Amino acid sequence: MSKVTYIEHSGFFVELSDKALLFDYFKGSIPKTDKPLYIFSSHRHKDHFNKKIMQLKSEKIILSNDIRAVPTENTVKLGPNKHTNIDGINIKTLRSTDEGVAFILEYNGIIIYHAGDLNDWYWKGEPEEWNAEMTLKYQSIILKGFADIPRVDAAFLPVDPRQEEYCGRGADFFLDNVKAEHIFPMHFWGNYKAVKKYADTRKENIHIISQAPQVFEI
Questions:
Q1: How far, in whole angstroms, is CA 190 from its chain's centroid?
Q2: DSSP character for 162?
Q3: Of 2, 57, 8, nearest to 156 (Cα)?
Q4: CATH for 172
Q5: Predicted pLDDT of residue 71
Q6: Boundaries of domain holding 160
Q7: How many domains does the chain contain in total?
C-alpha cells in the first residue's frame, strides 16, 4: 500500500500499486488517479452513498444490495456474507449491525477492512437488553468474520462521538481481537478532537485525522 486519503466522514481513497479504491464517498474532493478505479459503497444511508459515484469512470462499482441506484454495466451488488473475486480483488462481505455490509478485501497479500456501519451501536439511554443484544451481535460478526484472517493491513473503523463514552466500544473490540497494522477512525462527523481522544486510549498505530482531505503515506 502506498497512500490513503481521508475525504470526509467514512469516505477514503486508497491507492495500491496498480489499483485505486474509493470507499463510502458522499462528499468532498476525490483524488485524481491514472490507476483503474474500484468504488465501494457499504449501504444506502446518505452519509455513505452518493449517486454521483455512478457517473465516475471506474472498472467496477460494488454496492451493498440495499442501495437503490440505477445500475451501470459495471455495477455489482453484494449482500451480506458473500465472497467474490473481481479483477484479482478478493471481496468478502459481513452483515452490518445497521444497514448493508462491511467489506474485507484482499489484493496481492494486502488486506483492507472498511466497516461501513458495522459497529457496536451501544447507546446511552437505550434499554440495557437492546444494548446487550447489539454488543453480542457485533462481537459475533467480528469473531466469525475474521476467524481465518491473521491480520489486517488497514482498518477503517467507526468512532462515533454521538455515542459519548461508548464511542470507541466497537473499535476497541475489533482491535482487541484482530491484529491491524494501520487504523483509521471514521464516522466521527467532523469531530477531530474525538479522533485524538480515542487514539490516546490505544497503543496501536491509529492515524490521527485532523482535517479533510488528509493524505497518509503508509
A1: 16
A2: G
A3: 8
A4: 3.60.15.10
A5: 85
A6: 3-217
A7: 1
Helix, strand, coil % in the chain, rounded to nearest 5: 20, 35, 45
- Show the low-confidence residues of the chain (pLDDT under 50): none
pLDDT digits over 146-164, tens only?
Answer: 999 989 999 999 999 999 9
Residue 108 phi, psi (nearest 5):
50, 40
3-class SS at 153?
strand
One-letter amino acid for residue 155 of the chain: A
Residue 144: which H helix or E strand, with range? helix 128-145
Q: How many CB atoms neighbour CB 193 within 10 A? A: 10
- Cβ contact 112:105 at 8 Å: yes
Supply the pLDDT for residue 39.
Answer: 98
Instruction: Give the β-pairing of 37-41 and 20-23.
Output: parallel
Q: Residue 204: in which H helix or E strand, if any?
A: none
**Residue 35: predicted pLDDT:** 97
Half-sphere exposure in the Cβ direction for 58 (13 Å, CA): 23
The partner residues of 209 in beta bridges, in order of sequence, read: none
Count Cβ atoms below 10 Å from residue 27 Cβ, excluding itself. 14
The amino acid occupying position 35 is: K
Exposed e or buried b per residue across 148-170, where buried means at least 16 C-beta atoms within 10 angstroms of its C-beta: eeeebbbbbbbbbbebeebbbbb
